[in-house]
Design a protein that fits this description.
20% helix; single chain; elongated; three-stranded antiparallel sheet
């Protein structure tokens, strides 16, 4: 993963954080889900702002999409932005939650059944 960020510290867009995260996997058959969040720090090094963690997944090179770039943004109070002197980017492995994995497979199965004109499973499908 590679992330870069720009924080507007003053002006009409003060507090706007614009972020680009690239996630790439060089492994052939297994995927990867990474998480990234950013810390805003004051001149004293204190954390004065934090984003939620964003998760991005990629497949293995022989399986599907193994390279992606995502653009995202976050808003902070303009006073926090003005007091920010550094941004720390935290990136880490971030496995999907079981509920997310089940929902993904449910959508995949249901979508394939729709495309093939086959009946839905007894547990139902998301709308």
């Amino acid at each position: 993963m590679y992330t870069r960020a720009t924080l507007q510290r003053s002006g009409a867009l003060a507090g706007q954080l614009d972020v680009v995260t690239r996630t790439k996997n060089n492994v052939k058959l297994t995927g990867f889900t990474g998480g990234v969040f950013l810390l805003l720090r004051s001149a004293e090094g204190a954390v004065i702002g934090v984003t939620d963690q964003k998760k991005f997944g990629v497949d293995g090179q022989w399986i599907g999409r193994y390279d992606r770039t995502d653009y995202w943004s976050w808003s902070f109070d303009p006073q926090v932005a003005a007091a920010t002197t550094s941004i720390e980017i935290i990136q880490q492995h971030s496995a999907k939650e079981l509920d997310d994995q089940i929902a993904y497979w449910q959508r995949t199965v249901c979508g394939n059944l729709d495309r093939l004109g086959l009946p839905k499973p007894p547990y139902g499908c998301p709308q």
